[in-house]
Amino acid sequence: MSARYLSMAAISQKIEKQVFLPTEMSTHTAIATTAKGVVHTLQVPTEEPQEDEVLVKVEYSAVIPPEVYMVDNGKYVEQYPVILGFTVSGTVMKVGSNIKDLKPTDRVTTFSYGPSRYKGIQQYAVQPRSVCAKACRIPGNLSFDAAATIPDNFACAFYTLFNQLSLPMPLSLPALETPPLANSPILIYGAGSTAGQYMTRLLYLARYKNIIATASAKHHEYLRSLGATHVFDYRSSTLIEDINNVVGGSNKLTMVVDCISATTTMNNIAKVLNPTGTVALLMPVKKGTTLNVDEESDLITTLPLPDQLNPFGEKANVIGVRTFFYQEDTVLKERLLPAILPELLEKGLIEAPRYRIMDQGSLQQRAEQALELLRTNQLSGEKVIVKVSD
Q: Running along the chain, 390 residues long, what does each successive block of 10 average in pLDDT?
């Protein structure tokens, strides 16, 4: 029978038979930091997925700022080697015995944090089901490269707003009901960042009506399209005055997210925050006036802030957001990536941010190029992803 007359089921079976399934004795290439300041190419075992896991053939993976701290400063590293890459987009190869809603050949995008076996810059990665968004529900025009840009910052944004800040979690998005604090001003400082973009969008979809954003001027139009009510240039000499004007006077803001979390951004926020207000800092907090990462960087990874660096006063509620703990919320663990993200993408309510693809040279060279872009602050409002599969 001609292939064009095969049923869809037969075609699917044919594809599955042609997919290379690694054996327990297989190895594959991975990129890891093996010592402070060192990145190497390794051969690592291709593991079998456990009962609540899937094995994914990786197409693309995102590199994020904490990885620069890991490589350059040894932060967050308990034991070397540590494989790099904090997202995965790719194809499911095998599923664990408890997995009923994913199968081989399904497309997924995942937030690949945790031990090295979960990380993204390797040819095959085991992933817990709870961090996977089924990509077959993603519109066809969202490619593997675009899909790799989304899960980590989306999870960060949702967790920050609806867990850490305790805003009521909407039953659906767009929300069907107006939340209690819908008209209260909420400031997203550094909204041009990819996490800030998703926060702005999620607040709008949740029917908040007074979303204030600071960002470089080049991001203003896009942030307005996402739902920002007021957008200000954080470099403006009148920034504090401008924010106070739209909130009705000084120190009227009761809720702020600092997406940058540097000493300069905290000092500005302290000038507009109510003394008893709440500020969520995306960790780590960076000393100094820039985001440059070097050997002298002193990163604060836990709260409370040292007294000399805390501009908020004793009565302010200062929250340190560490997205890697988001699955301690059982609702988010069960629904955020497995259900909420695919639904929003399917409806076209959120989209991939701008991004750059590192696809030239060896896999190690691509990873090092991505790290250098972050290390030297060459990215603004965009992600950097590494092409893993050739």
A: 34 38 76 97 97 98 94 91 97 96 94 96 98 75 91 98 97 95 97 97 98 97 98 96 92 94 94 97 79 58 90 96 97 97 92 96 98 92 95
Side chain identity, residue 72: D
Residues 6+ apart with CB under 8 A from 254: 184, 185, 273, 274, 276, 277, 278
Superfamily of domain 153-325: NAD(P)-binding Rossmann-like Domain (3.40.50.720)
Instruction: At 41, give phi and psi (nearest 5°).
Output: -95, 130
Q: Which CATH number does the domain 11-150+352-387 belong to among 2.40.128.110, 3.40.50.720, 3.90.180.10, 1.10.3370.10? A: 3.90.180.10
Largest CA distance in the chain: 77
Closest CA to 340 of 166, 128, 174, 167: 174
What pLDDT sits at residue 367?
98
Q: Is 324 exposed, middle or buried (0-12, 13-18, 19+ CB in 10 A)?
A: middle
> Phi, psi at residue 101, to the nearest 5°?
-110, 10
Residue ranges of domains in the chain = 11-150+352-387, 153-325
CA 246/CA 224 separation, integer angstroms: 16
* pTM for this predicted structure: 0.91
